[in-house]
């Protein structure tokens, strides 16, 4: 988020709202965009359709010093309850998918599972390792989404972003210094599109079977019938956060309408109209208990606003 100190309260329409009128909505329930279905109302929610619109928006917001947040597929984001004053930018409508030989050009708002399915159908291997990973491509790249079988960074060739001043930049894979669930995306930048370089395969059915097998394994180990946002914490080096949380006795711990999954201890679930505060309490409690139990300080995968 950009700094908003000294900014007038957000009430009257801002000049750029006219230019992007068709993309701006007021008083939007964020829980509809968050996979665990919690979070308050955004006063101003913008869904740009093109990179140029993202640039125009960022240029205006930065010139005004207006704080903003980027919300992708909502599978690693925990907004607070109540009213959210920062402008929320959601690239969900930039969801193009185009195959060019062994490359695909995709919009940041393409759901990760559509990417997986469409690449498999096109006989292109690489992102099939992300079978079952929620969210959208922009967030997947920003956080280097992955599974036991691989990470998205292995397939990334180039990333088109708009910087906070609205300017367009093309980043190569090495520019993003990908690590385990991390990248060095410039602060305030928004990913608009990604070029992936994949591996053509002869046997599409075999590729589908491999992805399907990963998905089956995931569904056996993780909750599938409740709202959740995937893993809460990153795995510490050579350890498993799920195993540590389980050993600390956290499975089934309830706060309000939220609960730590009885199936996989690294998942928090919304089981009964949970508030964001319930989820946050469980995140804090879980980290504290693991620290006491094993001395390991867990790092959150979920980003709180
Ligand atoms: N385990 C327990 N108790 C639990 C959960 C797990 O003892 O409650 C043990 C398992 O038995 C296993 C080990 O912990 O020996 C690892 O668990 P699992 O195989 O379920 O994988 P994970 O490391 O918890 C990672 C990713 C998942 C991804 C899976 C499958 C992270 C933080 N998590 O989970 O990604 O789906 O591998 O590839 O890297 C995510 O990042 O949001 C996510 C869900």
Class by alpha and beta content:
alpha+beta
Which percent bin holds the helix content? 25-40%
According to DSSP, the number of beta strands is 20
Largest β-sheet summary: 5 strands, mixed
Q: Report the principal-axis shape.
A: globular
Overall mean pLDDT: 94
Sheet-strand content, in percent, reads 15-25%
Computed Rg = 20 Å
CATH fold name of the largest domain, please?
Answer: Uridine Diphospho-n-acetylenolpyruvylglucosamine Reductase, domain 3
Main attributes of the structure:
305 residues; alpha+beta; Uridine Diphospho-n-acetylenolpyruvylglucosamine Reductase, domain 2; Uridine Diphospho-n-acetylenolpyruvylglucosamine Reductase, domain 3; Uridine Diphospho-n-acetylenolpyruvylglucosamine Reductase, domain 1; 3 domains; five-stranded mixed β-sheet; five-stranded antiparallel β-sheet; 7 helices; 26% helix; 25% strand; binds uridine-diphosphate-2(N-acetylglucosaminyl) butyric acid
How would you characterize the overall build of this protein?
The chain is an alpha+beta fold and 305 residues long. It folds into three domains: 16-89, Uridine Diphospho-n-acetylenolpyruvylglucosamine Reductase, domain 2, CATH 3.30.43; 97-206, Uridine Diphospho-n-acetylenolpyruvylglucosamine Reductase, domain 3 (2-Layer Sandwich); 224-304, UDP-N-acetylenolpyruvoylglucosamine reductase, C-terminal domain (Uridine Diphospho-n-acetylenolpyruvylglucosamine Reductase, domain 1), CATH 3.90.78.10. 26% of the residues lie in helices and 25% in strands. It has seven helices and 20 strands. The strands form six sheets. Strands 1, 2, 3, 5 and 6 form a five-stranded mixed beta sheet that branches. It has a five-stranded antiparallel beta sheet with strand order 7-8-14-12-13. Strand 12 (156-162) and strand 13 form a beta hairpin. The longest helix has 19 residues, at 276-294. The chain starts with 14 loop residues before the first helix and ends with a strand. 42% of the residues are buried. The mean pLDDT is 94. It binds uridine-diphosphate-2(N-acetylglucosaminyl) butyric acid. Uridine-diphosphate-2(N-acetylglucosaminyl) butyric acid binds at residues 147-148, 218, 221, 230-231, 234-235, 240-243, 246, 264-266, 301.
């Amino acid at each position: 988020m950009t700094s908003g100190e000294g900014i007038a309260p957000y009430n009257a329409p801002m000049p750029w709202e006219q230019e992007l009128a068709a993309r701006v909505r007021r008083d939007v329930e964020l829980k509809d965009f968050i996979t665990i279905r919690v979070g308050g109302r955004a006063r101003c929610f913008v869904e740009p359709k093109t990179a140029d619109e993202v640039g125009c928006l960022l240029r205006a917001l930065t010139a005004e010093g207006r704080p903003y947040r980027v919300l992708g597929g909502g599978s690693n984001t925990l907004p607070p309850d109540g009213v959210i004053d920062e402008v929320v930018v959601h690239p969900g409508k930039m969801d193009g998918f185009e195959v060019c030989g062994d490359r695909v050009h995709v919009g940041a708002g393409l759901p990760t599972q559509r990417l997986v399915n469409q690449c498999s159908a096109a006989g292109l291997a690489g992102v099939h390792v992300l079978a079952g990973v929620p969210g959208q491509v922009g967030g997947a790249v920003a956080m280097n989404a992955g599974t036991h079988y691989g990470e998205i960074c292995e397939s990334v060739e180039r990333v088109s972003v708009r910087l906070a001043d609205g300017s367009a930049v093309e980043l190569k894979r090495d520019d993003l210094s990908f690590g385990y669930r991390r990248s060095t995306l410039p602060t305030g930048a928004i990913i608009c599109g990604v070029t992936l370089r994949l591996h053509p395969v002869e046997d599409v059915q075999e590729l589908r079977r491999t992805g399907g097998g990963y998905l089956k394994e995931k569904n056996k180990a993780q909750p599938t019938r409740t709202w959740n946002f995937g893993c809460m914490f990153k795995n510490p080096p050579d350890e498993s956060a799920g195993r540590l949380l389980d050993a600390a006795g956290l499975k089934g711990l309830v706060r309000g309408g939220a609960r730590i999954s009885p199936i996989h201890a690294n998942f928090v679930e919304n089981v009964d109209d949970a508030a964001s505060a319930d989820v946050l309490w469980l995140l804090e409690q879980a980290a504290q208990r693991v620290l006491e139990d094993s001395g390991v300080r867990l790092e959150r995968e979920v980003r709180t606003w």
